[in-house]
Amino acid sequence: MTAKEKRSEQVQLAVEIATKLGLLAIILYISYLIVKPFLAIILWGIILAVAFSPLIDKLAKRFGHRKKIIVAVATAIVLALVVPTWLFSDSLIGSGQTLLASVDKKELVIPAPSEQVKDWPMIGEKIHALWTKAHEDLVKAIKPFHDLIKEGISWMVGMLKSAVGTILMTIASIVIATIFLISKESAVSLYRRIMRRLVGEERGDEWANLSALTVRSVATGVVGVAVIQSFLALVGMILMGIPLAPVWALLIMFLTIIQLPALIVIAPIIVYAYSVSTGTPATIFAVYMLIVGASDGVLKPMLMGRGVDIPMLVILIGAIGGMMLMGMIGLFLGAVILALAYKLFDVWIQENPIPEEVDDGPESA
Known about the structure:
Elements: H1 3-63, H2 66-104, H3 124-136, H4 138-142, H5 146-182, H6 184-199, H7 201-240, H8 245-257, H9 263-276, H10 279-294, H11 296-303, H12 312-326, H13 330-350
């Protein structure tokens, strides 16, 4: 074969490879665009399936009928999401309509503030004066804050829409998770094969297990924090005599699970406590509830990373950074990606050990 023929053959081979790679890239890109609207729901479904798999396995060992248990658990979770949301939305709409009607008819009367409000540090006098105006004429008192109230209402409506969208996406993800849990063996086998292709036979299973344990660790941190916060809030509200305390505690747990601040519920409860109680107990209650609302910053580092052979700081940074980058789903994906990156870095370090120093003996004089 002459040099010219050899060069022509190389050019043809390069063109063929480039054409195949181009077609493959186009197919992959179009496939991504097709899957993109459902990608978040599918990822959430995988996360929920991994998180609930140990619970399903325990229930199946004890009671049998794995598929029935999966469907029952999924139905219970959906009802736990839908029923409180529907009740809360219905109550909120009804209360809002009643409140607006009362304001229009000037039937709404704000109770007069106690003299102890003036003793509040820094803001007591101003709060007492504004509260007194609201007691005498509510419409006139809130008129200067019309634009601020309008912005606040718009923000609350936006938050409610976002919460409803999150709930609908969660329900769809639960359906996907149910499908994955029913066909658990084939799904786990597929993921293990993918990891073996990526990192080899030796580490494929280990990294697959690491991914699952990381997701469960973060889920334990999220759900565990939500349960603890809601329980502490429930204790404080019962001691303070807040009406419907269990309902508000469940709502706090729900907001914490979907990563919305518990202060959305806690702040109005504190305001209500000040309107029905004297200064000192209400102040103690307010401080306690604010600590409860901010306790997730302390509890999450304690619960995340347990049971995983990865430093807790790596899991925590991955979860927080992932949430800042990708939203709620990044709480899990960020932790998994950073955990795998840490493991890859550790493997790279271990495969390049520091050579031992050779003792040449005492130096000759």
